[in-house]
Amino acid sequence: MMATYLWVAVGSALGGMARFWLATAVASLTGPAFPWGTLLINIVGSGVIGLFTALTGSEGRLSVPPDIRVFVMVGLCGGFTTFSSFSLQTLELVQAGEILRAGAYVSASVLLCLAFVWLGYVVASGAR
Questions:
Q1: Is residue 109 one of the residues assigned to a domain?
Q2: Of 40, 63, 70, 86, which shows the fewest CB atoms inside 10 Å?
Q3: Nearest to 4 by CA among 71, 53, 52
Q4: Per-residue confidence (pLDDT) for residue 127, from 0 to 100
Q5: If phi over 0 gives left and psi between -120 and 50 gives alpha, with beta otherwise, what is residue 40?
Q6: Across residues 75-81, what is the average pLDDT?
Q7: What's the total number of domains in the chain?
């Protein structure tokens, strides 16, 4: 079990460094007016987790040890962008025919996360 946590830690560190590098590189090319780097990171991370899930899942073409799946999906993708997990979980709900739950998950995630980022900002800044 401890080795699994190490795989997650290493993957998270590498994913986080990749995120910082790509966000910085894109911002230097496009400027600060729109978060193109974050958008690109979310798109790439979602694509990677979808690809890896399909390739290495129970019906996938590749057989990899569970720790490698954790390294890529939780570590690398999670460190790179948590939007990839959100996207995969939404897809899994849709594939299971849970369209209403998927919609509720998307809506709740966006609305509650926006509300709580605002709340955290207000609490920390003393703003009203």
A1: no
A2: 63
A3: 71
A4: 62
A5: alpha
A6: 95
A7: 1
Question: pTM for the whole thing?
Answer: 0.82
Q: Is residue 17 assigned to a domain? A: yes
How far is it, in rounded angstroms, from Cα 126 to Cα 78? 31
- How many Cα atoms are found within 13 Å in the side-chain-facing hemisphere of 127? 7
Residue 113 lies in a domain: no
Q: Name which of 117, 113, 43 is nearest 83 in CA terms.
A: 43
The pair phi, psi for residue 25, each rounded to 5°, is -65, -45
Confidence check: pLDDT of 128 > 60:
no
Q: Is residue 114 part of a domain?
A: no
Which string of DSSP letters, residue by residue, matches 12-65? HHHHHHHHHHHHHHHHHHH-SSS-HHHHHHHHHHHHHHHHHHHHHSTTSS----
